[in-house]
Design goal:
Chain A: This is DUF742 domain-containing protein. The complex is a heterodimer of chains A (123) and B (368). Chain A has 123 residues and is mainly alpha-helical. Helices cover 41% and strands 8% of the residues of chain A. A three-stranded antiparallel beta sheet of chain A has the order 2-1-3. In chain B, a hairpin with a 5-residue loop joins strand 6 and strand 7. Chain B is built from eight helices and eight strands. Chain B is 53% helix and 11% strand. Chain B has 368 residues and is an alpha+beta fold. The chains are: A mainly alpha (123), B alpha+beta (368).
């Protein structure tokens, strides 16, 4: 941290995050989490979008991208990115693909151990 | 005739005439002298009055300077702290981006911006430090930045974007001046009425127009505003009233110092005040290139991200580079960590556990 006597060294973003969302509350629905994948839809992009929304669409135009990746590229808090994404998807500019449900992520070795156990006990 | 000579009145007259003449001459002389003395006294008085006024003026200037330099250094500290705090808030926002705390952090950020703006405004009046060094920024971003520095920013609607950007040195002063105008606009209009901002390109530069639906200004207020906004307007911080009204004085100083112009003498189509900020060409530049063009994140090295074709349903197809399997392959080379007997005992313990759990459940309360 620099001292207050040397404030010129400090620089913060010109446009603060709460202005980007225009003070709206963060979406509390679980439409987006860190690994939700989004990509652009075929809908043509209007010209009057905010620069941040343009950047999101530019980022997503190459394919599916996760929320965490978008936030990383935009250098914005994830909550703010979620607001942008929920706006864009509500207007139909983005297509959201739900993440793979965690129940499918099963370790094969664990299944193998269960099988071994069952065989040892009953087999 | 002789009876005249015997008349004492004649003799009295003869004797009295030179006497009277002498008296008159003496009188006249005295009067001239008095007049001369009066003139001297008057000139001395004027001289004294002049030097008194000069010394009062000088004392006032000295007091003003002392006040200004004291305020200036005080504000500099506050501005530094506000900036430092804003950095800390930014960091916290990144850290708790997904946390519900973010909402509170955004509010704190907003309050801190207002605090910083107040300190900046007073510093400007004291010929002090305006603050941050900025890179060139688009007019739209400068307007948004200004919007974020006032309390009721959600009422401000930005109607248009322009293709121009401002040079770095103009960014902060214009943003501060706009913020003061927006603060006035929101303060003197109904709490739910919107404030419209439109940007227009004119031959001389770019106009930023702020319209409010408030009560407008009366003649006296307009006169005061014009006086403060004119380049010769005084920046006497002791003459801003109580409570002091900084707004127009700050805008006037900024406009004079950085060479843009502000007028508030027209009325908006909504009945309130229309403020017009004219940014001259010298302070404008073409749109800055984004620092690093946002690239779709493909970690596939040299392979250019080809635009994927779409499925019949309209969804983009993503060409997979690696394995699609999400179930990790069992490592066949890995030796089983446990012997069969161990595994059996673990399983037995597991079974025992679930059994006791079930019985505990039925004992504790009846499942319905």
């Amino acid at each position: 941290m620099s001292t207050p006597g040397d404030p010129e060294a400090l620089s913060v973003e010109l446009v603060r995050p709460y202005v980007i969302t225009n003070g709206r509350g963060l979406p509390d629905d679980d439409q987006f989490n860190l690994i939700t994948l989004v990509t652009t839809s075929d809908q043509p992009r209007p010209s009057h979008l905010d620069p941040e929304k343009h950047s999101v669409l530019d980022l997503c135009s190459g394919g599916l991208l996760s929320v965490a990746e978008i936030a990383g590229h935009m250098k914005l808090p994830i909550g703010i990115v979620k607001v942008l994404l929920s706006d864009l998807s509500a207007d139909g500019f983005l297509v959201v693909r739900a993440p793979v449900p965690p129940a499918q992520l099963v370790d094969v070795s664990l299944l193998q151990e269960v099988l071994n156990g069952l065989q040892a006990r009953f087999g | 005739m002789t009876h005249y000579i015997q008349d004492p009145a004649l003799w009295a007259l003869i004797a009295g005439t030179p006497l009277a003449a002498t008296v008159i001459v003496r009188e006249r002389r005295a009067r001239t002298k008095t007049r001369r003395e009066k003139a001297v006294v008057e000139s001395r008085y004027a001289e004294l009055e002049g030097s008194y006024a000069a010394s009062v003026h000088e004392a006032r200037i000295r007091a003003e300077d002392a006040t200004k330099s004291a305020l200036k250094s005080a504000m500099r500290t506050l501005q530094g702290l506000a900036n430092e705090q804003q950095l800390a808030i930014s960091k916290a926002q990144g850290k708790y981006g997904e946390h519900y705390v973010l909402q509170d952090l955004l509010e704190i950020d907003h309050m801190n911006s207002q605090f910083g703006r107040r300190a900046q405004a007073i510093a400007v009046l004291c010929d002090g430090w305006l603050g941050r060094q900025r890179a060139d920024a688009s007019v739209y971003d400068v307007v948004r930045s200004a919007k974020g520095r006032i309390r009721h920013y959600t009422r401000v609607e930005i109607r248009s974007q322009s293709n121009f950007a401002m040079t770095g040195r103009a960014v902060e002063p214009v943003a501060l001046a706009l913020a003061e105008l927006l603060d006035n606009a929101t303060s003197y209009s109904a709490p739910d009425s919107p404030i419209d901002i439109t940007t227009r390109t004119v031959p001389k530069g770019v106009c930023i127009i702020i319209d409010d639906a408030g009560v407008g200004m009366n003649e006296e207020e307009k006169k005061r505003a014009d006086h403060l906004l004119s380049p010769q307007g005084p920046t006497d911080i002791t003459a801003l009233g109580n409570p002091p009204q900084f707004g127009f004085a700050v805008i006037g100083v900024l406009a004079a110092r950085y060479g843009f112009s502000v007028s508030v003498d027209s009325s908006s189509p909504y009945g309130g005040v229309r403020a017009v900020v004219l940014i001259p060409e010298e302070l404008l530049t073409s749109m800055p290139e984004p620092e690093e063009a946002p690239m779709p994140s493909r970690t596939s090295g040299a392979a250019a991200p080809e635009v994927s074709t779409s499925t019949p349903g309209g969804l983009p197809k993503r060409s997979r580079k690696g394995s699609i399997s999400i179930v990790p392959q069992a490592d066949s080379t890995r030796a089983p960590a446990r012997t069969e007997a161990e595994t059996a005992s673990i399983m037995a313990a597991f079974q025992l556990g679930t059994q006791s759990g079930r019985s505990a459940n039925t004992e504790g309360h009846d499942p319905q």
